[in-house]
Amino acid sequence: MPGKVLTPSPNWYCSRCSDTNPRGILGFGAKNSIFLLEITPTQPLILGELGGHTERVTGFTFCHHPGLTDTCASTSDDGTVKVWDIQTRAVLKEHTAHQSPITAVHWSPLKKELVVSGDEKGIVICWWHNRNDTHHFFPEPRNIFCLSCSPHNEDHVAVGYKDGMIVIIDINRKGEVIHRLRGHDGEIHFLSWCPQLCEKGLLGHYDTTSETEGLNGKLLKEDAAKDCFLASGSRDQTIRIWNSTKGKGVMTLKLPSLKRRGGTDMGIKERIWLTVLWSRTRVTQLVSSSFGGELLLWDLTKSGKQKWTLLGSSSEGQNHSRIVFNLSSVSLQDNSELLLSTSMDRDVKCWELNTLECSWTQPTLGGFVYSLAFSPVNVGSLAIGVGDSMIRVWDTLSLQSSYDIKTFWQGIKSKVTSLCWHPTKEGTLAFGTDDGKVGIFEIYSNKLPQISSSYHRKTVYALVWGPPLLPMASGGDGDGPGMMLYSCAGEGVVLQHNPWKLTADAQDINRLIRETNGIKHKLPGHSELNWKPDGKALAIGNDDGSIEIFQVPRLKLLCTIQTHHKLLNAIRWHHPHGTQPDLSYLLASGSNNAIIYVHNLKTVLEDPPDSPITVTEPFRMLLGHTAKITSLAWSPHHDARLVSACYDGTAQVWDVLKEEPLCNFRGHAGRLLGVQWSPVDADSVWTGGDDFTVRQWEVSKQEHTQPPKGKKAAELDKKKTNCSKPKSKKARKRNEKGSGGPEEENQENSIQNVVNSRNGSADREVDQDCQDEAEMAKLANGISQTPALLEELGAQDNMDHMVPNTSQATTNQTPQVKKERLKDERKKERPEATVRKKKGRSSLPLSTVNDHRSKEELHSDCMNLANILYSKESGSQRLPGSGEEIQLGLFVDRPALYRMFEEEGQNHLEAGHPEMCYQLMLWKGDVRGALELATERGELNDTLVAMAPMAGYAVWMKTIEAFSKQLCFQEQYIKAATYLLSVHKVYEAVKLLQSHQLFREAIAIAKARLQPDDPVLKELYTSCANVMEKDGHYSIAAKCYLTAKSPYDAAKILAKKGDVASLRTAAEVASIVGEKELSSLFSSRCALDLLALRNWLGAQEVLRPQESLLGQRLVLCTCELLYRYLADRDLILWKSLNSPCYHDWTLRSDEPLINSVTAVWQSEFGISGSDLERLKIAHQQLRMMEHPEASLNTPPRLLMLHLAQELSLAITYTLLSDWAQMVTVLLKVVLRCNKAGDFTLMQEIGKIVLPERADFTSDLEVKLTGTDPLGLAALRSLRAFLCYGQVYELWWKLADDRPRTPRAGGQQTGTEEQPGAQRAGRAEEDAEADGARAGPGPLAHASGLTGAARGPLAAAGQLLDRCACFLSHDHARLQALQRRTADVQQAVAELVSQHQMRSSEAEGAQESGPELDQGAGPEPEPEPAANSTSNHRSPELPLSNKETSSMTTLMEQLRDITQQQSELAEGVKLHPFPDVVESSLVLLSISSLAPSVVPRELRDQALALAQTYGTAKTHQRAVRRFLREVA
Question: In angstroms, rounded to a whole number, what is the distance separating the alpha carbons of residues 13 and 1402?
């Protein structure tokens, strides 16, 4: 039968510490090794172990490439990354490039030679192991928790961090971050790639058998339209699915709250480790862990909230009972998929994903195996006591499973160090623990264990059932238990427990031993006991190596065996059913001296002596082991055959009678602690040790016959994976006596107690068990305790202090240094009770050294001291307490002591321990001297300063000031300020903190200690505000300003950021503090920002509290209605990412815009003609708004706002019946659109301002005629501009049916010159080209120009009938004069420029020629400017070349032009008007395209104007072309 093995538990809190290969082999890291299991659907087969790491394994991954499936990689806290061959169990390659603890590893699924690993410092290392080449990347300065290589792109690696960040890097581009995936709030526990590429869109159903493969990791063409998906599990209890192609999250899954057995304590935070695994065969399903060990199968295409299905829900007990750490899967040949899970409950489970049921469970061990015990009743039941605070009962004869194991943990809070089955009662198992507890389990019931009320003070090492002793044997009514439970613990006491009344006090058998044997002296400490199987004798082993044999029931001492001289660890009587009856008197014993003695006690037991005898010679002596013996077991199938377990890591089978070794088992990787011979198989032995394993082995198959000796034993020690650090000489002495028992406490009285522990569990637990279990636990990231029934096994006391990643290593340390430092830190984390305290530094080292000299010198000191104290003549000329007699300072007078203090203090100063020198000065009362010396050296500390008041007030004040300066030099400003406060120097403390910009602390002290009106407070707040403002902390600065009574500054600083929220807050704060103008300003700015976002509701809400902004509210109302009006006509001036947020009153689309505005004003704002006072207030506010003129670069949003303001002003003029001003403002509206170059907007605005054109215009003319001629002139200009735009539109339609970009024509004002001539020239060039191209044609192109006409001909005719309004001779003459003025001004500028040029040349030539007389000679003739408009001369205003020959002539021409302009009417000069020549040429072009449309009178009038005032070459060319066509 092959040997069975219980392996160590898979390591906890590692993102990837287990993996499977395609051949169905599972590997997992356990302690410092990797264990391999062959996976089958029925039960696992343990293949072996990979040993080579010296610290805990933190990661494991298989290579999944064909032909390399037996290759794997592992990482460890020892800083190495190793590549293994699982067939040969050998390391192929390794590297130590990491300088920090390694936390993640993965073998690339696309590059067979690439292993990627990451560490706590954020370093990602790509290792091409075939060429031993490593590349380092540092994508983020964060703590890496996990990583995963993409199965679709060979260069992409996903990395998860402790803070919840996920990045995808490209290792081919030097680790460049491709995507940053944000969304998790806790550390990323695992990353799993979808094994297949998915179609575009959300995950759906796909054919799992047609997975597309890429070439060398590059996506094929058919994969370009597919997406890669990545699943992540985090401590924030969510699973997120990411589209790694787009770098976006597509799905978030929240862990459900499942009701579990035992409930949950709401006051205790649940542990959580959320690992995920994408199914290999089902692309839409993934498996995840949950809170209490449950596994969930998620269907990503399932609708509804519950997308999950619970695994193992069909029966109780299938799920894990603790959180799950790692998941992996393997596909079998029948297309089924098996899932493997590892958990904190120390079970490895296999699940069938088709049925969601658990196929098998493989238990593991989480601590040292301290005790093994086979049941004498239920043969084959092996009880295992483990250091993870659990008991396993293994049915080794089970036919259902090779690992049919039950686990018992209820009521156990410590390591199980001893076990013993009841000899006759089935299922009754007694146990003892490391904390001194003794209890009894009934393994076939669900009851909690019975716990004895009598606790041992130290670890329980031995338990045995035996007959009751007096007085219990003879007391009561005779109805007592037939067997009592006896326990022996580290304090050296044996207690007798009544199993029927465990609540009663247990009896100390030492009392009975003393009474029966009349012993008065102190009894030795007991370390082991064993009853003879017939119950007639009891053997007790002691810590001094002696064995005492007692006769029952009164425990009469028969003999004392004095062969061992060290602590007894194991005593075993031979079984009584041998072929030779005398063998039952054999007693085997093992101690710390590595020798096994066997004694034959037949004579003593058959004929008990009257007085105790002493046995000094053994019956047999078994030699071979090289370390202490920990356990012994007689073979129940043979006579006098013994097996021993030893600290040398081997188990030895002996033939006792022949004193010969038969075989030696060396399968363990550590020290052995327990051994049992199988009760059913004569060739089978079971052993357990500190390597966390229980192993079954066969005697006949062992190749060695005896234990290793000498160097072989040392080599075996190196093989141990949990070897302790070298101990000091004193520690080695303690271990020789038995490490882990009671300590030696009083050497002066020669009382020797038990040393630490009998089986060395204390030191072993510190060195190994605690290192492994606490180390795994400390990665829990602050995970709190579970309920009492789910207490952490083996690490309860440390769970509240667990952290996932310790900052133990720096990048500058070598791996060896890091390794030593990690060990040191683990040593610091050991429980105080198990670590021997280091002795502190001596305060008197010189005298102490002298007291440890040779014996002769010490005797000489005694003689000198006697002479000094009792003889008048001293034998030495030296002063005691100094020099070579410094040690005598303690024994003579006070001056000698002071001399000793002085020399010792000087030595401390030279050695760099000044605090010891100060301590000596304080001992002799020189407080002032100590303070002065420390002040001079700058080494004051809290202790010295606390002593300063003893030296007086002045010294105290001086010391405080000096200490404060010292603290400032050490940059401990807050502590320095605190000391200044202790002497009431509040202002100095505040100033100190303020000078180092510690404003919070300074303000806190000032407010606590100063008056509220102290000016220092205001200065503090102001300074803090200034600093916060520079640093961009505007909110804090505002609070400081508010407290400093500067609310104006507070509001301004709040608005400095300029966003909507800041401006709104600033406006509200300004309103609260009474800064109304400032509040109005910020409200206005905020409203404008909301306007840019098209949030009309928010803008009005901001302005509502501001009554002074009523006009702006009206403007926003008009702007909103205007925007909605234009948007309904598909004219949107600007857009934003936000959807427009309208008021309900913008839905008035059934009436003209102006009417809608006035109606909303009245209903929402109370503005109407009936409330003149409110109307005038709004009108005045609107008039005060000024805006710059529009240009081609004016943003559409501002253009719309300015138009709304002018429309609002026009409406108020209408309500006030001021028609002239209304028309003037409407003219500005149209003119603003024209200047902005938006022809379409101008047309739409025209339809708004002049509804029902004929009637509306006629009514206005009637109202303005005779009352306001300037208003009438404005109306004419308004009509001319609107008609001008319509004529241009008609011309473009006739010339070409394709759309053109509208460009408004030029116009001239009486106060500003516009470049209308240039636009006219361009228009005429276009007209000439269009006329030549189009020619006279039908009017079909003019259809649809206006909606008022019934057909295109009628529409064009009605339009041209109104064109006479812009054919004005007065305006044409004014525009010609303005063009001429421009020409004259240009000529003047050229004259001035030429004059300045000649002056510069003359100054440069003064040294070489006579000075030029600038006044002599004729004035230079200016050259006509190229492409100038100087040819724009009318016949009645000729401009010859001679007239422009001098400055005088030019000035005369300007006076003449001015005179002619003054003759024109004021109404002509006041308002802008379309360019008349340009308009005339457009009409002539229309006449050429459609002669029947333009009336002859209108055409002749336009021709006359063009010939009279159009003197530019382009004008003349267009006129000549038209005349040729007419001819």
Answer: 92
Measure the CA angle with vertex 590, ends 584 and 593; round to 5°.
150
Phi, psi dihedral angles at 553 (to 5 degrees): -95, -5
3-state secondary structure of 201: coil
Element containing residue 1088 per DSSP (H, E): helix 1076-1092
Global pTM reads: 0.53
Amino acid type, 213:
E
Classify burial at 458, counting beta carbons within 10 Å of its beta carbon; exposed 0-12, middle 13-18, buried 19 or more: buried
Side chain identity at residue 1201, one-letter code: L
User: What residues does 1308 pair with on adjacent strands?
Assistant: 1473
DSSP assigned state of 1342 = G
Backbone angles phi, psi at 1392, to 5 degrees: -65, -40
Residue 1142, CA distances (Å) to 1097, 1147, 1160 in order: 6, 9, 13
What distance in Å separates the CA atoms of residue 156 and residue 159, rounded to the nearest whole number? 10
Place of tokens 């005398």: 582
User: If you count DSSP H runs as helices and E runs as strands, how many of each does the chain have, helices first?
Assistant: 39, 61
Residues 6+ positions from 265 with CB-CB distance below 8 Å: 787
> In whole angstroms, what is the distance from residue 60 CA to residue 72 CA?
7
Q: Which residue has the tokens 């899932």?
A: 339
Q: Distance (Å, rounded) from C-alpha 1320 to C-alpha 215?
A: 67
Report residue 83 as tokens. Answer: 């590549």
Secondary structure element (H or E) that encloses residue 896, with its range? helix 894-911
Give the largest CA-CA distance in the chain.
166
Calculate the CA 869 to chain-centre distance: 73
Place of tokens 């070349």: 1441
Residue with tokens 């909507």: 1060
Residue holding tokens 């401590």? 235
Concatenated DSSP letters of 1453-1518: HHHHHHHHHHTS-HHHHHS-EE-HHHHHHHHHHHHHH-TTTS-HHHHHHHHHHHHHH--SHHHHHH
C-alpha 84/C-alpha 63 separation (Å) is 10
> Strands, DSSP E only, in 1297-1342?
1307-1308
Residue tagged 């020619």 (tokens):
1335
Number of other CB atoms surrounding residue 884 within 10 Å: 11
Residue 761 has what DSSP assignment?
Answer: H
pLDDT at 1425: 38
pLDDT score of 962: 92
Cα separation of 1238 and 1248, whole Å?
Answer: 16
Specify whether the CB–CB gap between 328 and 22 falls below 8 A. Answer: no
Sign of CA dihedral 1459, 1462, 1463, 1464: positive
SS3 519: coil
Q: At what angle are helices 1239-1249 and 1153-1160 packed, to 10 degrees?
A: 70
Burial of 1210 (0-12, 13-18, 19+ CB in 10 A): buried
Q: What is the DSSP letter of 315?
A: S
Amino acid of residue 1096:
W
- Give the pair of three-digit tokens for residue 1477: 């020549």
pLDDT of amino acid 877: 65
Burial class of residue 1030, CB neighbours in 10 A (0-12, 13-18, 19+): exposed
Q: How far apart are CA 1521 and CA 1330, in angstroms?
A: 12
Do 823 and 101 contact (CB within 8 A), yes or no? Answer: no
Give the per-residue pLDDT at 1325.
45
CA distance 999 to 982: 20
Supply the DSSP symbol for 1066: H
Model pLDDT, residue 196 = 87
Residues of the chain with pLDDT under 70: 1-2, 200-225, 259-270, 471-480, 710-840, 872-877, 1148-1150, 1249-1268, 1271, 1295-1366, 1403-1445, 1467, 1526-1527
* 796 in Cβ contact with 815 (< 8 Å): no
Q: How far apart are CA 190 and CA 17, in angstroms?
A: 11
DSSP conformation class of 256: P
